[in-house]
Amino acid sequence: MSEHQTLVEARGVGKMYGSVKALDDVSVTVNAGEVTCVLGDNGAGKSTLIKILAGVHQHDFGHLLIGGEEVRLSSPRDALDRGIATVYQDLAVVPLMSVWRNFFLGSEPRKSIGPLKIIDSRGARDTARKALAELGINLRNVEQPVGTLSGGERQCVAIARAVHFGAKVLILDEPTAALGVKQAGIVLRQVAAARDRGLGVVLITHNPHHAYPVGDRFLLLKRGAALGNYEKADISLEELTRQMAGGAELEALEHELRGVEG
């Protein structure tokens, strides 16, 4: 997969919060047309890593490169201007607003009527409907409140919005965490669709069964450090699941308990 263009690369990045080292010497690569999965339990450092990639926090150690250029992101707007869009678990949608209003929230297209500029609602509706359809999301009515959509559909609207506004790198923070099997499948299809459009996708999850079908690279984090960094050809779902479950620790515990029983 070395032919894919590298969009973002973190080399040995670290982050301190006071005297606490939240992230320690972590490296990750995000290539165009690939999905990089970042896996780990709560407290593993996933949130800290994505906040550095998203411009929410600056790294204290290591190097962050975007398009081969070393940078220090000053804000989420800085990251967005460089083509990095982040979809957080809470989605930042307004439930009572329509789908199309949420799609364009803060970036509404406008048209002139005499000296006035008003929102081009018809154009916005058509654009939102088309952009969603291009990712295989066919909603009954883009006028319906976004709060009436399923969790999976809301995630898909947020993904389609990021793609439409020119994201090159799409960071998804636990997009399937609160979803059932069917809804998770809908979201994972959109992850694959974004990848197939040439975006570099970073999928944050604690579920290897969601990561493995769409993932090309896998970074496992534990207590702020990298437990492993693999390409898909180098690790099976079974081994990924074993490492996520703390396989070595469980084996040691089982051996210890057998000793106690003996």
TrEMBL record:
Q: Which domain of life is it from?
A: Bacteria
Which keywords belong to this entry? ATP-binding, Nucleotide-binding
Q: Which CDD domains match?
A: ABC_Carb_Monos_I
Where the record annotates domain ABC transporter, the positions are 8-248
In alphabetical order, the GO MF annotations are:
ATP binding; ATP hydrolysis activity
Provide the protein name: Sugar ABC transporter ATP-binding protein
Specify the species.
Mangrovactinospora gilvigrisea
